[in-house]
Q: What sequence folds into this?
């Protein structure tokens, strides 16, 4: 048997790739180029030999800091380009590679230029906004002043003082000095302050003015006809022009402070209409000049950003790669005396030749006098886990890795999940109409695979696209199971011929419950369409799907136990085979394997035996006669024997393994006492659970091992019952999906179609389509997906999968994302 197993060809994904721990001794002059070439190859995972040092104590900390600063500048340019709304496509012609120092100088010059232009543009924009607000205040406030003069009877006092408080309004103040220089203050006359404020602050502003002046003021307001850009947020905001009439110096001081607190901009408006018109003309002239200046500045800034944008993608890639190279160099030990860097890392065994060739090329290209020394080291700790996957198997491997990364070279569940996962999903989702809908979605993703793979997708769409082959297989298996269930949106079809049943006479032409007789061979594939609508439809389908769920569950759990045997055999753990695999197989199949056998015999013979009664009384009264529940000769003594084997298997799992491990430890301890030198081969023979030559010696604690084995045994015994029951979710979800489809078809579509009103029919079709798309195709798909996930993670993988490994993460430029900056 062992010779037959040894001759079986190896499966690519069954075991992770064999890994080798290697050491590199790299001369300083070729270190950068060597690491760069290794990053392009992407098959070496470096170990951090400076884990005890902080990032600032490492050799190349300054270079990493420089790369980080350049990344910040590049992100600044990208934000500026996006903010300006420019679309800069990379140049098609090949640009020469640029040195890091030259790139750093170019980025510094470009940043200084852009920052200076932004500063000038911001100042001009602020002046433009102030002039624009001044123009609006002049236009709107003049109406209030004319109205105030009309009501001032006999008062010829000129309103010569227009107070304003805007420290930033320097240019306009100097420009219009003759209009804005107030004369001697009139302490007893009527004054006013005009300005503009955000609309959302107006009510609180007016209430504060009223309280501060105790109502001794007149507040007038009017909305501005145009929105004004807020310099702080660059958003267009709606503002309100106001004029406050008051009397007294104390009131003036309070109003100015309130305006400053609320961010209201105050502007001087002369009372004389002639001066208003002259001031308005000057403001409009300044606005026209500023618009031309701003447009010219924007064009110049866009030209500068375009010149950067053409090379931005390449520069970002270059800086990202350089930073990754220096981060990797910081993981190496720097030997000052020998002027070399020493590094260690894991690589797949098949990649040693490629790595050696790459290092030779790096030595030649860097004109180094000394080559890179590359040799294999003896591994102590567990190597990383690496599976070579393709587009189809990668999604299934990710599903397994979400539970836990496989231990180095243990059996990989993803190999079997490629088939079992979509199949168990389809058992719960079986409807070939819904399967066709899923198939169309999967084919759409596959047809646009090349285009979608180059786009940045949202989180939900990225998840769908990554699992496109999973969806394809789920759809194909759903069509297969739907044909077995004979359900197309819950409607049966005579696809594979006519029904095996017909009416006894003409009086039962419309009957579904009585009068049908079997007159021909059974329906060739799947469920006979005549079961639909019959009185025994639900009991028949319940019995079928429940028994089928148990058979599938027992088969998958046995597969998990068989994989545990191959794991133990691969790692040379004979104790696990003798005291774990064999009793577990005996216990599981003595009870539930026997139940599966009874189900198959009952199907084949058409017996009316009650399997519930058989299994219950197998424990309660094993020696009692079975009577009508006997399915085959010798069933009673077989049940007694299986029950005894199940009882024997429990202590078999519990006691021998801890004592055997204790004996092995004692022999090893005694051998060391007498000075016998052990080698890694001897240690491998006497340490069944070891997968590698050499390990750290740990203190042997018999009580801890015994308690662990006790927990493991109890968990398996109880889990055999609970896991078998857990597979009944296949029956429950399949029944729920079928019944929901039937309800939507009969109570929505057929009910609406029974009316002659076209509007009711359209509403019925719309509701049926909505329910099918969102409930059956989205919610039910997600539900079946999660339940199939649970069956694989717990019931199947729990039998053999440790999942305590760690992923192989090679240094590769292809794996560097934008977030790594």
A:
């Amino acid at each position: 048997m062992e010779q037959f197993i040894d001759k079986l060809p190896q499966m690519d994904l069954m075991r992770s790739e064999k890994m080798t721990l290697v050491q590199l001794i790299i001369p300083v002059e070729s270190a950068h180029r060597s690491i760069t070439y290794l990053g392009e190859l992407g098959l070496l995972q470096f170990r951090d030999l400076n884990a005890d040092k902080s990032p600032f104590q490492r050799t190349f900390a300054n270079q990493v800091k420089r790369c980080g600063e350049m990344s910040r500048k590049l992100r600044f340019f990208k934000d500026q380009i996006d903010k300006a709304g420019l679309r800069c496509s990379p140049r098609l012609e090949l640009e020469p590679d640029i040195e890091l120092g030259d790139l750093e100088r170019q980025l510094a010059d470009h940043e200084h230029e852009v920052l200076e232009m932004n500063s000038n543009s911001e100042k001009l924009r602020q002046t433009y906004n102030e002039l624009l607000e001044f123009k609006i205040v002049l236009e709107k406030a003049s109406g209030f002043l004319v109205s105030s003069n009309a009501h001032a009877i006999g008062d010829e006092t000129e309103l010569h003082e227009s107070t304003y408080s805007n420290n930033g309004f320097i240019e306009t103040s100097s420009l219009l000095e003759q209009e804005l220089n107030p004369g001697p203050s009139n302490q007893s006359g009527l004054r006013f302050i005009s300005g503009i404020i955000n609309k959302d602050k107006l009510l609180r502003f007016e209430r504060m003015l009223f309280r501060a002046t105790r109502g001794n003021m007149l507040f007038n307001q009017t909305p501005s006809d145009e929105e004004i850009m807020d310099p702080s947020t660059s958003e267009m905001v709606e503002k309100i022009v106001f004029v406050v009439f008051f009397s007294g110096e104390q009131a003036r001081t309070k109003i100015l402070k309130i305006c400053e607190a609320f961010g209201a901009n105050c502007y001087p408006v002369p009372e004389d209409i002639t001066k208003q018109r002259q001031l308005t003309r000057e403001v409009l002239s300044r606005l026209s000049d500023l618009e031309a200046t701003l447009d010219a500045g924007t064009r110049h800034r866009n030209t500068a950003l375009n010149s950067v944008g053409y090379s931005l993608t390449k520069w970002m890639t270059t800086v990202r790669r350089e930073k990754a190279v220096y981060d990797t160099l910081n993981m190496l030990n720097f030997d000052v005396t020998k002027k070399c860097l020493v590094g260690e890392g894991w690589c797949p065994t098949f990649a040693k030749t490629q790595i050696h060739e790459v290092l030779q090329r790096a030595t030649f290209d860097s004109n180094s006098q000394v080559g890179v020394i590359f040799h294999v080291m003896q591994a102590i700790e567990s190597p990383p886990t690496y599976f070579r996957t393709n587009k189809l198997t990668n999604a299934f491997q990710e599903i397994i890795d979400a539970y836990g990364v496989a231990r180095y070279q243990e059996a990989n569940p993803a190999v079997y999940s490629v088939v079992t996962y979509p199949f168990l999903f389809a058992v719960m989702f079986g409807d070939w109409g819904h399967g066709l809908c899923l198939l169309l979605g999967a084919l759409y993703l596959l047809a646009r695979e090349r285009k979608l793979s180059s786009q940045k997708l949202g989180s939900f769409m990225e998840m769908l696209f990554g699992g496109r082959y999973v969806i394809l297989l789920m759809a194909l298996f759903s069509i297969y199971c739907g044909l077995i269930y004979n359900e197309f949106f819950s409607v049966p079809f005579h696809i594979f011929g006519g029904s095996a049943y017909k009416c006894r006479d003409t009086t039962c032409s419309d009957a579904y419950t009585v009068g049908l007789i079997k007159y021909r061979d059974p329906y060739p594939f799947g469920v006979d369409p005549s079961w639909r609508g019959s009185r025994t439809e639900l009991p028949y389908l319940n019995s079928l799907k429940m028994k089928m769920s148990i058979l599938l569950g027992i088969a998958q759990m046995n597969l998990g136990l068989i994989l545990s045997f191959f794991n133990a055999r691969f790692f040379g753990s004979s104790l696990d085979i003798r005291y774990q695999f064999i009793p577990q197989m005996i216990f599981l199949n003595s009870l539930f394997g026997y139940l599966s056998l009874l189900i198959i015999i009952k199907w084949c013979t058409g017996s009316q035996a009650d399997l519930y009664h058989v299994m219950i009384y197998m424990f309660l009264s094993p020696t009692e006669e079975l009577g009508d529940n006997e399915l085959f000769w010798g069933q009673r003594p077989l049940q007694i024997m299986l029950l005894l084997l199940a009882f024997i298997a429990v202590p078999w799992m519990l006691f021998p393994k801890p004592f055997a491990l204790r004996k092995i430890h004692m022999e090893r301890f005694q051998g060391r006492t007498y000075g016998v030198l052990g080698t890694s081969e001897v240690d491998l023979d006497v340490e069944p659970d070891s997968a590698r030559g050499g390990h750290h010696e740990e203190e042997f604690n018999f009580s801890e091992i015994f308690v662990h084995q006790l927990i493991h045994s109890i968990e398996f015994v109880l889990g055999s019952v609970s896991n078998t029951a857990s597979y009944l979710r296949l029956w429950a979800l399949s029944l729920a999906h079928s019944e929901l489809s039937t309800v939507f078809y009969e109570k929505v579509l057929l009910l609406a179609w029974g009316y002659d009103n076209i509007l009711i029919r359209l509403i019925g079709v719309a509701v049926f389509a909505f329910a099918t798309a969102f409930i059956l195709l989205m919610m039910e798909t997600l539900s079946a997906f999660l339940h199939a996930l649970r069956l694989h993670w717990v019931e199947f993988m729990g039998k053999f999968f440790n999942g305590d490994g760690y992923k192989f993460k090679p240094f590769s430029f292809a794996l560097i994302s934008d977030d790594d900056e």
Notes: The chain has 25 helices and 13 strands.
